[in-house]
Design brief:
Blueprint: E1 2-8, H1 13-25, E2 31-37, H2 42-48, E3 54-57, E4 60-64, H3 72-79
Parallel strand pairs: 1-2
Antiparallel strand pairs: 1-3, 3-4
């Protein structure tokens, strides 16, 4: 099971885009999403508030603001322990 944590905020189009892209890249793989609103946690807001969305894959930081475009599918699969 791939654990995905997305630091987000309500009505964030970049956050929605990142989640959609990850779901497409990991289609067919078992995954579990945890979506956290950074504005509800002062520590997260202070640390990541300007860099939302922030994606963690299996508890490791993977991307901030946008998924890396170059070979993102391969990098994401490696980070998820699939290759």
């Amino acid at each position: 099971m791939i654990r995905l944590r997305l630091l987000s905020r309500p009505d964030c189009h970049l956050c929605e885009e990142m989640r959609r892209e990850v779901d497409e890249l990991l289609q067919g793989e078992a995954r579990e999403w945890e979506i956290l609103d950074v504005d509800r946690d002062p520590d997260l807001a202070r640390k990541y508030g300007e860099e939302v969305p922030v994606l963690f894959v299996n508890d490791r930081l993977f991307a901030k603001v946008r998924l890396p475009r170059l070979a993102s599918g391969l990098r994401l699969r490696r980070a998820a322990g699939l290759q």
